[in-house]
Amino acid sequence: MIFDILGWIGATMVVLAYALLSTKKIDSGKIYQAMNLVAGILIVIGLYPKNAWFSFALNAVWAVIALVALIRIFSKKESLDK
To answer: Considering the entire predicted model, what is its pTM?
Structure first.
């Protein structure tokens, strides 16, 4: 049950992030990438007990892409602060 709840929260976050980006409420920066990272992780957790490995892999990669984007965003900010 908890896995399903976490998966649904993650799926909702993906859609919400995309809707906010598409309506220009946010840009593709920190908030968007953080939402994608958390959403991807929650979906992966939700999928683990279901053995839905193709969706598991997709969302794991989704989370890694968001993590890399966040690292780049924060690295650029640190280099600007120096």
So the answer is: 0.87
Distance CA 35, CA 14 (A): 7
Q: At a CB cut-off of 8 Å and minimum separation 6, what does 50 contact? A: 3
Contact 36, 14 (CB under 8 A): yes
How many percent of the chain have pLDDT more than 70? 93
Per-residue pLDDT band for 76 (boundaries 50, 70, 90) equals confident
Q: Is 26 helix (H, G, I), strand (E, B) or coil?
A: coil
Which residue type occupies 63? Answer: A
Number of H helices, E strands in the chain: 3, 0
